[in-house]
Amino acid sequence: MHASKKKEAAKEALRELDIDLDTLQQEWAVQVTHQTKPLPKCGGNKVAEEVEKILALEKLVENYGGCVAQLESDLTSNGKVNIVDYNVQLAEAQSSLNKATGLLHHQETALGVVGHTNLNKLHNNVYLQAHINALALKTCI
User: Fold this and answer.
1) HSE (CB half, 13 Å, CA atoms) of 24?
2) What does the alpha-carbon distance between residue 118 and residue 52 come to, in Å, rounded to a whole number?
3) What sections of the chain are H helices per DSSP?
4) Structural domain count of the chain
5) Is-contact 128 55, C-beta < 8 A?
6) pLDDT tens, the chain, 141 aa long
7) Domain residues for 7?
8) Does residue 108 form part of some domain?
9) The whole model's pTM is what?
């Protein structure tokens, strides 16, 4: 009895608003289809790809840090250098180092628990380290 009263009230409201029942049913069907479609599946390799990116970024940060240290060392030890050129090179190297470090931090914070576990396991993998070294060298070139 209560349900039939609600149904009649809803029909009356639709009549007052001059909404076509066929249009309403079509829109309802579209809404149901949209809301019940399955969620997109995450790729199984996404975590592995993110971990590989982080390892490559770590190597890149290490290389940039070495470059900055070398430039600073050359600047202080070699008296025959053009200080302006060295300062420009040093500023560019430090900027690159800061960008890479920021990106690395962002990537690491976005990694989930599984990703952190995989990252910790792969830090000691010799084969992967050789692969990452090659990627870092390729990125620098």
Assistant:
1) 10
2) 10
3) 2-17, 21-36, 46-77, 83-110, 113-122, 126-140
4) 2
5) yes
6) 788 999 889 888 888 888 888 888 898 899 988 888 876 665 556 777 787 888 888 888 988 998 888 888 887 887 666 778 888 888 998 999 999 999 988 888 887 777 777 777 777 777 767 776 777 667 655
7) 1-36
8) yes
9) 0.54
The C-alpha atoms of residue 7 and residue 20 are separated, in whole angstroms, by 16
Same domain, 85 and 117: yes
Identify whether 41 is part of a domain: no
Torsion of CA 124, 128, 130, 132, to 10 degrees: -110
For 18, left (φ over 0), alpha (ψ -120 to 50), or beta?
Answer: left
My answer on whether 31 and 86 are in the same domain is: no
- Are both 56 and 110 inside the same structural domain? yes
Query: Quick check: is 97 in a domain?
Result: yes
| Identity at 101, one-letter amino acid code | T
97 contact partners, CB below 8 Å, separation of at least 6: 61, 64, 65, 67, 68
